[in-house]
C-alpha cells in the first residue's frame, strides 16, 4: 500500500481543517438551519466540567490582553469558544453571547464557559466560598469576644464584691430634705471620721425674712453638740444621745442596685446599699456611693415605714483644709443648754 495512503487514516474533518489553514481558504458556509443546529451541538465534556474563572482585576473581572483592548468584538448571536472582546475571553463578549444564545434550553455555563486561567496561576475561589469564609471569621471573633468578656478582670454589673471603703476625711456641701416639713437645708460640711466629728455651716442662699442661720459642731467622742448663731454668736451646748454613725457603707450592708448617674459621655456609676435583711426586716437606711473612690452621693433614713430625711452630697474635696473649724468659739464657754429656734 502506498505510504501516502497509510498517513491518511486520520478523520476527514481534521484533514479538511488542516488544508483550509494551509491554503488560507475559508470553509464553505452552511445553511442557516445547519448553523443553528451546529451551535447547539457542543461536546458533552464541556457540560460536565465547568472551567475555573481566570484571575482578573480587583473588581473581579477577567484580565484583558493588550490585543483585547483594541480588537473588535464578535458579532452577536454566535457562541465563539474562548473569545471575548476581540477573541480572548473578555467579560463583555461573554455576557453578550450569553444574552443572545441560540440555545435557550441549555444552561449558560454550558454554552459559554468561563475562559481557562493562565498557566501557573491559582484559580479564584467560587463566589459562594467567600461568605462561608466570612461567616467562619465572624464566628471566631464572636467566640473571642465572649471569652474576653467572661475573663475580664472588671466586675460585672449586678455581681458586686464587698462594700467599698469611703474616705475618712473630706469637705463638701450637702442638701438635707426634711420630709415632715418639706424644707431643704443647704450647708457646708466638714467630715472627720477618724476623730468622729462633723461641722455644718448653713448657707445663706436667699434673704428669708425672720430666718436665723446656725453653725453646728458635733463631737461624738465627747458626746456633745454646739449650736452657734452666725449673726449673734450665741451658743447652745446639747448632750448627744445618738451613737456615731459614719458616712460610709457598713460591712454587713445588703446590695440593692448598680446604675449610672448622668448620660452618655458624662456619667458616673454608683452602687446602692441598705441595712435591709432579707425576710427579716425592711431597710431604715439607704446609701448611694460611687463605684470609683467610694464618695457618698445620697443617704436616706426611714422610721416607722416612712421617710424622715434624705441628704445629698456634692463638691467633695479630700482632706480637712482648716481643722480649727471643729473648735467651738469662746462664746460657748457660757453656752445655754437648750436648742435655739431658727425663727425670730
UniProtKB/TrEMBL annotation:
Pfam families xrefs: Ependymin
GO process terms (BP): cell-matrix adhesion
One of the record's GO cellular component terms: extracellular region
InterPro entries named in the record: Ependymin
Locations listed in the record: Lysosome lumen
Sequence similarity: Belongs to the ependymin family.
Gene Ontology molecular function, alphabetical: calcium ion binding
PANTHER family registered for this protein in UniProt: MAMMALIAN EPENDYMIN-RELATED PROTEIN 1
Function: Binds anionic lipids and gangliosides at acidic pH.
Taxonomy, superkingdom: Eukaryota
Region Disordered: start-end pairs: 18-85
Descriptive protein name: Mammalian ependymin-related protein 1
Location, primary (coarse class): other
Ranges in a coiled coil: none
Amino acid at each position: 500500500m502506498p505510504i501516502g495512503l497509510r498517513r491518511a487514516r486520520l478523520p476527514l474533518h481534521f484533514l479538511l481543517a488542516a488544508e483550509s489553514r494551509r491554503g488560507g481558504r475559508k470553509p464553505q458556509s452552511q445553511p442557516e438551519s445547519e448553523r443553528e443546529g451546529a451551535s447547539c451541538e457542543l461536546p458533552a465534556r464541556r457540560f460536565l466540567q465547568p472551567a475555573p474563572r481566570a484571575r482578573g482585576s480587583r473588581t473581579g473581572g477577567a484580565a484583558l490582553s493588550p490585543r483585547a483592548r483594541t480588537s473588535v468584538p464578535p458579532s452577536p448571536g454566535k457562541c465563539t469558544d474562548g473569545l471575548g472582546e476581540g477573541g480572548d475571553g473578555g467579560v463583555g463578549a461573554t455576557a453578550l453571547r450569553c444574552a443572545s444564545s441560540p440555545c435557550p434550553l441549555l444552561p449558560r455555563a454550558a454554552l459559554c464557559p468561563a475562559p481557562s486561567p493562565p498557566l501557573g496561576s491559582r484559580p479564584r475561589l467560587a463566589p459562594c466560598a467567600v461568605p462561608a469564609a466570612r461567616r467562619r471569621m465572624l464566628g471566631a471573633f464572636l467566640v473571642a469576644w465572649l471569652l474576653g468578656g467572661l475573663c475580664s478582670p472588671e466586675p460585672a454589673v449586678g455581681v458586686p464584691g464587698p462594700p467599698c471603703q469611703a474616705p475618712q476625711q473630706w469637705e463638701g456641701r450637702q442638701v438635707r430634705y426634711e420630709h415632715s416639713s418639706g424644707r431643704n437645708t443647704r450647708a457646708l460640711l466638714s467630715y472627720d471620721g477618724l476623730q468622729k466629728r462633723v461641722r455644718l455651716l448653713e448657707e445663706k442662699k436667699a434673704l428669708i425674712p425672720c430666718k436665723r442661720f446656725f453653725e453646728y459642731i458635733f463631737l461624738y467622742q465627747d458626746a456633745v453638740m454646739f449650736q452657734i448663731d452666725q449673726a449673734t454668736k450665741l451658743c447652745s451646748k446639747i448632750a448627744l444621745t445618738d451613737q456615731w454613725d459614719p458616712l460610709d457603707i457598713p460591712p454587713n450592708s445588703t446590695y440593692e442596685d448598680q446604675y449610672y448617674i448622668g448620660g452618655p459621655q458624662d456619667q458616673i456609676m454608683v452602687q446602692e446599699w441598705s441595712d435591709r435583711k432579707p425576710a427579716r426586716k425592711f431597710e431604715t437606711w439607704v446609701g448611694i456611693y460611687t463605684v470609683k473612690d467610694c464618695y457618698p452621693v445620697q443617704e436616706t433614713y426611714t422610721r416607722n415605714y416612712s421617710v424622715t430625711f434624705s441628704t445629698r452630697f456634692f463638691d467633695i474635696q479630700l482632706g480637712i483644709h482648716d481643722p480649727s473649724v471643729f473648735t467651738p468659739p469662746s462664746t460657748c464657754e457660757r453656752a445655754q443648754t437648750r436648742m435655739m429656734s431658727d425663727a425670730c
